[in-house]
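Why does residue order matter? Because the sequence determines the fold. Keep that principle in mind as you read this record.
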Amino acid sequence: MMGKVPSFAPGSTVSSALPGYVALCLALQVHRLASARFTVTGPDHPITASLGGEAVLPCHLSPRMSAEDMELRWFRSQFSAVVHRYKDGRDQYGEQMPGYQGRTELLKDNITSGSVSLRIRHVQVSDHGQYTCFFQSSVSYEEALLELQVAVSGSDPQISVDGYQDGTIWVVCRSAGWHPEPKAQWRDHSGQLLPSASEKIFKDANGLFQSQISIFITEHSNQDLSCSVRNLPLNQEKLSTASIAELFFPRVNPWMVALGVILALLAVLIALATYCFWRQHRAKETLQGELKWRRDVLNAGWEKARQYAVDVTLDPDTAHPKLALSEDRKHVKRGDTRQDLPDNPERFHHCSCVLGAEGFMGGRCYWEVEVGDKTRWTLGVCRESVSRKGKVTYTPEDGYWAVRQRDGEYKALPFPWIPLPVSVRPSRVGIFLDYDAGEVSFYNVTDGSHLFTFTGTFSGTLRPYFNPGLNAGGKNAAPLIICPVPAQTGGNLGP
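Structure:
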């Protein structure tokens, strides 16, 4: 007897296959997402950098894959606090915090294998702390934390006696200029640790730490002491030693001792004052003669410098957006509002300054600038290669040779700044560049006197530098004016 053949509905075959198809699609999607996931790894220890040096913050992907098409971002405490950003195959500087502008560089040599590093130049104390390294692809993102320690070794410890009472003296050890917080300790002559009576840590205006520890010493204490201050990240230590002599433990009436010391000091001071007065009186005439001779030589140098007068104009492509230039490019003035100008690489972004259009790579050249009664200005020369986007540091090491005036005070601008004695307020300033001799000289054209001369060695192209500044109180000032130099007359002053 034959069995009954089963019958099927028309769509039964397709319906039974649908769940398998859906499961297959989900499996493929999960596999695709899983293959696109990654982790970001940074160093497992703090990165140490010296103040003013360079720091390199490395990150890499695991598993290895190319990060060329990803977004890479280093930021501080918040996602928007951007230190450096890379997206669409190039660096993005629009969101970068001002403090890092011109100081960061993304090292991309191994970006195709997912390994990149961020270089921070001219490390500052404010760079100290945590950074987040963030990678984002089209389907996933991950991040890692890094820590940068900015380390500075401070001054040698200074040991001093700050007080005496009842056979006990108060000895203090001070040291400044450290970062991060140093560890200070007292030790005896055998190297054994001694307990401190007090410990204090201060932070100065530059963000560096000052350490102060103190100790009580009595007649029965070991009087040979050493004070050490250690920078833990750099593993560097500075040490000073002192022997507390029995002079600090008087056995006679301390008031009598103090009176004798005061009388002896007064006698020495009177003798020194008499001698100094005599020397000063004797040297006065010689000094006046030397000053007259030097003034005559420098004034002759100014007359000679004017023979090398060149025509200098202003370069509008370098001018800060708040500066207004005349049509003949001889006048520059600080304005109230920021002009809508293209942010080309040559234009200064932070400093309200402008460069001369002419560049000099040798020889001698001279030009004069009318400053009038302006209360603030800065003039000089700079390397053509100086950074235009960050904060200007007026030092020869950073490519600037400049003199400035601020509310009647004149200074040359290496670091530390050098005050310039000016007897007659200049309404016009002359600048003389002798490239081959490595000299930049400044003259007060008003009375023909010499203001200052920088000496060194030049390389690359140098260009005139102008900063019209503001009057005291932030008010707009009159313009700086590049003036024609009168033709010289008289005899030849030599080559």
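The longest strand covers residues 141-151.
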